[in-house]
């Protein structure tokens, strides 16, 4: 039974890791749209598109609403290069449809992870296991493995972000329709590679903060236990 307790702890910790990762993506992408405006200014996308910031931000909000399933079609009429037209073309719609499937799939995965975490916690409580110690230690084990992977990924991104970016697309897409020609496509002008690199850093920072907070919480049971032992030893000595 003890092994089952620890298995539940590991599953809980992996589920929590998934929740933190997907939430980091969502927070980075949706919590503050001013981030996009700053990125557009940084990479001077207005000059490349010959658009106003208000129009670019309108396109951005509609695109992001589409990605999380809040609107059905990716079609936004605006003024680009002095012409009123649909900002997105058919290739944009196809690729962003695949991106939307990935994002919504991630959100559904997070719900599944939440359910798994709750089930594991209820199980540990039901069998009267030392759930605080088990979850704390399990989290530290999963965190150690994840931390190593995060460091490796961080090094790869720092050394050659483009290679990592390309490999990501090869893993998650079975076509080359994610390759755009800036001379013909407005969307890729609005979303330069540097913007994606900055967003990866933003996601990583949020994720690491979440990991650190959970790690700090995982230390509490051990410190409380040590404090009780110390107090118990002091009372014994005094008697």
Notes on the protein architecture:
- Helices cover 78% and strands 3% of the residues.
- The protein has a two-stranded antiparallel sheet with strand order 1-2.
- By secondary structure, it is mostly helical.
- It is elongated.
- The mean pLDDT is 91.
- The protein has helices at 2-30, 34-42, 45-49, 53-67, 90-126, 131-159, 161-172, 186-190, 193-238, and strands at 77-80, 83-86.
- β1 (77-80) and β2 (83-86) form a beta hairpin.
Shape: elongated
| Neighbour order of strands in the largest sheet | 1-2
* Structural class by helix and strand composition: mainly alpha
The overall number of domains is 1
Summarize the structure.
This protein is mainly α and 239 residues long. It has helices at 2-30, 34-42, 45-49, 53-67, 90-126, 131-159, 161-172, 186-190, 193-238, and strands at residues 77-80, 83-86.
